[in-house]
Design brief:
By secondary structure, this protein is of the alpha+beta class. Helix content is 34%, strand content 18%. The chain has helices at 21-32, 37-51, 89-93, 114-128, 135-138, 140-148, 154-163, 178-184, 201-213, 216-219, 222-233, 240-244, 272-282, 295-315, 326-329, 332-339, 445-459, 464-469, 494-502, and strands at 9-11, 15-18, 61-68, 73-79, 150-151, 197-198, 249-251, 254-258, 261-265, 359-366, 372-380, 426-430, 433-440, 473-476, 485-489, 507-510, 520-525, 532-536, 543-546. Helix 13 (272-282) crosses helix 16. It is globular.
């Protein structure tokens, strides 16, 4: 048994794990009152959009994987927003820009899809899962915390401090945006410290309007008008038509075989293809002959990640703009070909600079009937664009800043287009029975951590909490770095780190349980008695709660 710092949570009826304990409480309260997994997810998603604002917002996007226990189907919902009708390369070139700014009004060039995602999932819940809890009731927890306040977490304190860093005025220093300062800083300009009470009255009013009038008020009504008026008054490009024309889409999930199980994920524009590709490559290796946590284990998963990312970066964009050969990229034969490119004696040098930016929340829910949700919601960077349209409290994402202004780039900016998205929630099925619900935040780290969870739980039979807590790694580039490196938590033995360096890995040892590695979670179903087992990541502020 591996050492764990928390125990695995168990629930014979329903269970939820999120990276913020208040969201977990909101979700399990719905489950205990007869709600289904989707209803619990909406309560948790709206709550965490309030109490974890540096990681997500109703001004961001979300993606859903839904397991219907009655039909044994996996459904996928893409609720990411498209770029505005005025979002053209020439528009940005007129500002003499060679890339889209990471912050500010010009970075907020895609419509936020989160609220529409809640609505679409809610309609499915009513029609297919016999949902009975009212839309208005599901948002009450979020409204309460926005209106009456919540205790600021250590994570929020840290990331607020990072983003008011005066040494980096181009990217950080978000207090230059008046509404950001008014909402996220005290009246004297100081930070909210952990444990202090923070209120968001404008956001409370917006959420109340959504609860009372439905999602249309956010896309076609008064809230949309308030957002667009302020965006356009400050040189932004989103229009009322952009909001009115938003649609969230049910899409076919993608899958690969892994050791006889079926791993599911979201198709492009998400990087779910990369997460599945890693598993498709690992299928060609006998992990029973490789010790978990060994040099060989880390090296194999890192090299598989590099190859999966190379395919991803060659092809990933909005599939409505290009035909992506997904069947070929996820074929067993392609996984075998990629596996043959891995040399266990040295590290493959990648020419493309990876960039694992992205702050997100992932959570999972399983209800008493066995219905499940794997859910992810994000504003891209910590605090997204930094922009909050006046009188709305809505922090807008900067996901569209990932578009390229090079017209030859696979992910080049065009109007009404979805950008490359790091978000990708996951599930694993045994035949048509739900086995594992899993995921993480962390941009480029998501496919890597998903592979860590699956191998540790499926191949090495780790306890759920142990699999989440075990030392992690992150291959990629971070802010200010000019080359890719491999970040490894300090709990990995020095001799292992040295051996990886000898194989050619450029390693940076980081603190143990750093949230740079993301906030992971997982729920495992015991097929013998239907007990659900869940874990929450000590790298975050969350909790797994069952009943």
């Amino acid at each position: 048994m591996k050492q764990v710092y928390r125990t695995t949570t168990m629930g014979p009826h329903g269970i939820i794990t999120t990276p913020h304990y208040l969201a977990s409480q909101a979700g399990v309260n719905v489950l205990q009152n007869g709600g289904n997994a989707i209803e619990a997810a909406i309560a948790a998603a709206s709550t965490i959009a309030v109490v974890y604002p540096h990681m997500n917002s109703i001004g961001g996007d979300n993606f859903w994987l839904i397991y219907n226990a009655n039909t044994k189907e996996v459904k996928a919902l893409n609720s990411s927003g498209r770029s505005g009708e005025k979002a053209t390369i020439s528009t940005y070139k007129e500002y003499n820009l060679s890339e889209i700014p990471a912050r500010g009004f010009l970075s907020a060039n895609t419509v936020p899809g989160a609220v529409a995602g809640w609505d679409q999932a809610y309609q499915y819940s009513k029609e297919q899962l016999k949902g009975t809890i009212s839309w208005k009731r599901l948002l009450q927890s979020a409204i309460n915390y926005a209106k009456n306040g919540f205790a600021v977490t250590p994570s929020q304190e840290h990331w607020t401090n990072v983003n008011v860093n005066k040494d980096d005025t181009e990217f950080r220093f978000l207090q230059r945006f008046q509404e950001f300062s008014r909402v996220f800083l005290k009246k004297d300009g100081s930070l909210y410290n952990r444990g202090e009470l923070m209120k968001q009255p404008d956001l409370a009013q917006t959420l109340k309007a959504i609860a009372d009038e439905g999602s249309d008020v956010f896309y076609k009504g008064a809230i949309a008008q308030l957002m667009v008026d302020d965006i356009q008054a400050n040189g932004g490009i989103l229009t009322l038509n952009d909001f009115k024309n938003h649609r969230s889409d049910w899409v076919d999930p993608i899958s690969v075989d892994y050791r006889g199980y079926t791993a599911y994920n979201l198709p492009p524009n998400t990087q779910g293809m990369a997460s599945l590709s890693i598993l498709n490559i690992l299928n060609n290796f006998d992990l029973s002959s490789i010790k978990e946590g060994s040099v060989e284990y880390f090296h194999l998963l890192i090299e598989a990640t590099k190859l999966a990312f190379a395919d991803r970066d060659k092809w990933l964009t909005d599939p409505e703009f290009i035909n992506i050969p997904l069947d070929d990229l996820l074929a067993k034969s392609h996984g075998m070909n990629l596996a043959q490119q891995i040399n266990m004696d040295f590290s493959k040098v990648m020419t493309k600079q990876l960039d694992p930016k992205g702050d997100t929340v992932w959570f999972g829910v399983v209800d008493n009937e066995g219905n499940a949700v794997s859910f992810i919601q994000s504003i891209y960077h910590d605090f997204g664009s930094g922009i909050i349209p006046k009188n709305t409290g809505v922090l807008l994402q900067n996901r569209g800043s990932f578009f390229s202004l090079d017209e030859k780039h696979i992910n080049c900016l065009e109007p009404n287009k979805r950008t490359f998205h790091t978000l990708n929630p996951a599930m694993l099925l045994d035949g048509d029975a739900l086995k594992l619900v899993y995921g993480t935040m962390g941009g480029e780290g998501q496919p890597q951590t998903q592979a860590a969870l699956v191998t540790r739980i499926i191949d090495y039979k780790f306890d759920i909490q142990a699999a989440i807590e075990a030392p992690r790694w992150l291959y990629g580039r971070t802010w200010g770095a000019s080359s890719n490196n491999l970040k490894i938590e300090s709990r990995v033995p020095r001799v292992t780190v040295q051996s990886l360096q000898d194989l050619g890995h450029d390693i940076e040892v980081v603190e143990e349980f750093t949230d740079v590695m993301g906030h992971a979670g997982a729920i495992l179903i015991n097929p013998e008695n239907n007990v659900k087992l869940a874990g929450a990541d000590p790298r975050g502020d969350g909790a797994a709660i069952g009943y």
